[in-house]
Amino acid sequence: MDRRYFLVAGAAAIAAGGAYFWPANSTTSLPGLGAANAQEAGEVDTSIVAEMSLGDPNAPVTVVEYASYTCPHCRSFHENTFKDIKAAYIDTGKVHFIYREVYFDRFGLWAAMVARCGGPERYFALADMIYAQQSDWARGDTPTVIVDKLKKIGLTAGLTPDELDACMQNEDMARAMVAVFQENSERDSIRSTPSFLINGDLVAGDKSFEEFSALLDEKLG
């Protein structure tokens, strides 16, 4: 069974704030979901949040994936299905793939901030590393341990400590990322992860390569 979350309730929890702040006395100041939602949506510059995509924007099929870095089913899809989908459909010009992050908690938000720290060119390589090590970093005993493990992933990918600190302490970016997540997920009626829009049709749940390719082939005719 898919791990399901009701994002409308999640958005309300985010808006309530309070529970999702990094300790004020921490030596590393990181935005939590409560802090990220501290401003009204109209005050947030969402233009700074780049859409992360692969493939030809003019491809006949567009796939939009909604996924969380803390979701085991999302990890399963990326480890067992996505690489084959990329080779067979994205790299061959049949599919334009767009990845949109979902934040259920501050840890997923921080992971996304690390992934974005390398820019669009390195985003998907970092995403692969974050998913591959999910069972390690996402189960850290404390927020500090989780942050340290996420930073190690970034360092392994070639980011510098200063780059990582700047990215993870960027509260304007965190607010914008949460605002974009809320707007997109509410518009597209996303209720669980992973979820996919395939030429606008919503499909939920982890899929095998055979299952997913059948959906794509139907759209390709």
TrEMBL record:
InterPro entries: Thioredoxin-like_fold (IPR012336), Thioredoxin-like_sf (IPR036249), Thioredoxin_domain (IPR013766). Gene3D superfamilies: Glutaredoxin (3.40.30.10). Residues 24-221 form the Thioredoxin domain. It holds the Pfam family Thioredoxin_4. Belongs to the thioredoxin family. DsbA subfamily. PANTHER family: GLUTATHIONE S-TRANSFERASE KAPPA, THIOREDOXIN-LIKE REDUCTASE RV2466C. May be required for disulfide bond formation in some proteins. This is Periplasmic thiol:disulfide interchange protein DsbA. It comes from Candidatus Rhodobacter oscarellae.
